[in-house]
Amino acid sequence: MFLKIKAILLITCIGFLTSCKSETTQQAATKPPVKSYSVLALQKMSTSVSLEFPATLEGMENVNIHSKIDGFVEKIYVDEGAFVKKGQLLFTITAPQYEQLVRTSNAAIKSAEAGVESAKLKIEKVKSLVDKKIVSSYELQEAELNLKSSEALLAQKEAELINAKVNLGYTRITSPVSGVIGGLSFKPGSLVSASTPQPLTTVSNISSIVAYFSVTEKALLGFLRERDGSSVKEQLKSLPDVKLILSDGHEYPATGRIESIFGLIDAQTGTVRIRAKFPNKESLLRSGGSANLVLPQTLENVFLIPQKAVTDLQGKKYVFVENEGILRSVFIDVQEASSGQFYIVEKGLSEGDKVVLDGVQFLKDDMEIKPELANASEIYKDL
C-alpha cells in the first residue's frame, strides 16, 4: 500500500515538473524579439542659425507737411504715392490777408522813407540857423533825434514787409525732402491752420529703409560677446549682413547692416531696440511696412539632433537615450537650426549620449532595444 502511494506521488511530481518546463518553453517562444533602432552618438560641432525678429520699416525721413498759416487749400499739385523732389510745389493756400499785408507794408515803407527825408531836410535847415546863432543848438539835437526816430520807424516797416512776404510765401507749400507722398488728408477748399493737428500729407524719403526690431537683453549680450572689438561700434561692424523676409514670405533681394543699438532697455519688456539699414533703389519697401529681420549667427561646440528624433509632450520636448540596450527619456531645451531639419540642443544632453533616431512614437522608458550606430557624416551631410 505504501509503495503504491509513493509511486502515485512520484508520477504527480514528474507531471508537474514537465508542465512547468512546457510553460517556460512556451513563454520563451512567445516573447517578442528585441528590435533594432538607429542611434546617434552625440558630438559637439559648429553650425549657423538664423534668428528672426519682427521688424517695422520706416523711411530715412518721414516729414509731416503742415500749413504754417490760416487759410483754405486752393490747389493740390501731387497725388498720393507720387514721387516728389525737394522743393517741388505740393499745395497752395488761399490767404488774401497776407497779400494785403504786403501791400500795406510797402505803403508804410514809402511813408517812413518820406519821414526820413523830411527829418534830414530839417537838420540841414536847423544847422544853418545854428551856425548863424539864430536858434540854439538844442533844436539841432532835437532834429537829429527826430531823424533817428524816422530811420528806426523805416527799419520797423521794412521788417514788417519781410515778415509779410514770409507769410505770403507760406501760401505755397513745397516738399522739404525728396520722397514719396503719403495720404492726402485735405481736399481743395478745406480750412487749415498752423494749429491743425493732422498734416496735409507726409513725405517719406525711402531711398533707404530702416528696420527697427527688438531683442532681449540676454540675446543682445550673447551675440555681442561673440563679436570682435573693444567697443559696441566696433562690434557692430563685425556683425554679418542681415536679411529681410517680406510679409508675402519672399526674401528681399538686398542685404542690410545693423547701424545702431538703442541706449535704453525697456524695463517693461526687457528688450532693446536695434536699427538696421537697407538700400531701396527700386522703392519696393515702403515706410510703415512690416517684415521679419533675419540675423545669421554661428554657434560653436553645440549638439545637433534631427527633428524626427524629438517628441513633443505638452510643449516640452524629449528624446530617448540608449544605454546598454535600455532606453530612458530625457527632456531637452532646443533651438531650431537654420536648415529646419535639426534642433540645436541647449540643455539636457551630454557628449557621447546615444539618441534614438527613428520610431520614437513606439518607444517607452526601460524598453530594451538593439542599438545600431548611425553614420554621423551621412546624417549631417546636408548642413
Automatic annotation (TrEMBL):
Similarity annotation: Belongs to the membrane fusion protein (MFP) (TC 8.A.1) family.
Protein name as annotated: Efflux RND transporter periplasmic adaptor subunit
Multidrug resistance protein MdtA-like barrel-sandwich hybrid domain location: 62-203
PROSITE patterns to which the protein is assigned, alphabetical: PROKAR_LIPOPROTEIN
Subcellular location: Cell envelope
Main location: other
Record GO terms (molecular function): transmembrane transporter activity
